[in-house]
Amino acid sequence: MSDESRSWWESELYDRDYDLLVVGGGLTGQSTALFYKRMNPGSRILVVDRGFFPLGASTRNAGFACFGSPTEHIDDRSIEEEAKIIERIGRRISGLRLLRDTLGDGSIDYREEGAYEIFTDHKTFKKAKAQLSLFNEWVKKAAGWEETYTIDTFEGYDAVKIKGEGCLHPGKMMKTLYSKNLDLGIEFRWNCRVNEIRAEEGEILVEKGLVLKASQLMIATNAFTSSLLPDLEITPCRGQVFVSRPISDLKWKGTFHYDKGYYYFRNIGDRLLMGGARNLDKDTEFTSEFGINGKIKDELIRFTNEVLKISDHWEIEQQWSGIMGFSPTKSPYLRSLTDRTVVAAGLSGMGVALGMQLGKEAADKLTGL
């Protein structure tokens, strides 16, 4: 049956088969496209995404280039064996290195000033302090670094300084990656919602019954994977972030963690970026719906006032939410569904560090199928 809504010229352009079809235009999906094209220069690649921009967390995160704070490591020990945690730290560090080498520090506004985890409870600090030698050994095994975690103070609080962590501009990160892919001739379809994955056939069904085909499929939808592949155990989690108006006497300059990484904040010039606290209302925040949780917003404001002791006259300039995808152990999935379809998901709040590395590994896997 002919499609009377489309011209002959459009059909010739768009009714074509591809070598690789990537579902998800975030950091992992676009990185897969980039490295696959480099490995297979003559390939035809299409990336589809349901949003006008990447809708998950790639352009909605807080811009932390991090690999794990001491209390996060303590928490991780309760759900995963030590060897897996060390492996994940190594992947995060190598992923950040790959991201910087591929895109360039200047293009993504990368700053590496180190980071701090701050403590308001001496008992928690004492517990973290007792395990710093172990965590330093982990990072040494993972990346060869010495003395990554050291005891310090910041603004009167006990703190652990974390060497090698930094921050970046997520929007510029994605813009730079997108430009590189366009230069390679990779095609994109934005505002293209996928309704069904046909992994065996190498097809996806999109809106209005349109079927797109490729020799290989890559599913890189992270938090939204369960709606397309319900058998894959990925839990969507919402994270909230706000940025303040300029604060003239802002003392918190740098990158900071608190409470197992659930709270995170940094300066953007003379503005404060504050995010997290989803552990305050976990059940509500296990969602793929964007929105602001008033209970969490109030807690982030309280934390800013009472812990950071920001002056009384500060105001929120902009607030938003992003959706992360968590695996049961926080280690991401990279697996073949069929001999032509690969899925990568479950970056567990570490998409900046893991996304490009996971995309490159997916491109390697697809090339080897």
Which terms summarize this structure?
369 residues, alpha/beta, 8-stranded mixed β-sheet, globular
- The gyration radius over C-alpha positions equals 21 Å
Count of helical regions: 11
Which geometry do the CA atoms define?
globular
- Strand content range: 25-35%
Taking all residues together, what is the mean pLDDT? 93
Number of strands: 18
The helix/strand series, from N terminus to C terminus, equals HEHEEHHEHHEEEHEEEEHEEEEHHEEEH
Class per helix and strand makeup: alpha/beta
- For the terminal residues, how far apart are their CA atoms? 35 Å
pLDDT < 50 runs, ≥5 residues: none
What is the percent of helical residues? 25-40%
Describe the main β-sheet briefly: 8 strands, mixed
Describe this structure in words.
- The strands form three sheets. Strands 1, 2, 8, 9, 10, 11, 17 and 18 form an eight-stranded mixed sheet that branches.
- This protein is α/β, with parallel strands linked by helices and about 375 residues long.
- Strand 14 (about 265-270) and strand 15 form a beta hairpin.
- The mean pLDDT is about 95.
- About 45% of the residues are buried.
- The protein has helices at about 10-15, 25-40, 70-75, 80-105, 120-130, 130-145, 170-185, 225-230, 280-285, 295-305, 350-369, and strands at about 20-25, 45-50, 65, 115-120, 150-155, 155-160, 165, 185-190, 195-200, 205, 210-220, 235-245, 255-260, 265-270, 270-275, 315-325, 335, 340-345.
Please write out the topology.
Blueprint: H1 8-14, E1 18-23, H2 27-39, E2 45-48, E3 64-65, H3 70-76, H4 82-103, E4 115-119, H5 122-130, H6 132-143, E5 149-154, E6 157-162, E7 166-167, H7 170-183, E8 187-189, E9 194-198, E10 203-206, E11 211-219, H8 225-228, E12 235-244, E13 255-258, E14 263-268, E15 271-276, H9 282-285, H10 294-306, E16 316-326, E17 333-336, E18 341-345, H11 351-368
Parallel strand pairs: 1-2, 1-11, 2-8, 4-13, 11-18
Antiparallel strand pairs: 3-7, 4-6, 5-6, 9-10, 10-11, 12-15, 12-16, 13-14, 14-15, 17-18
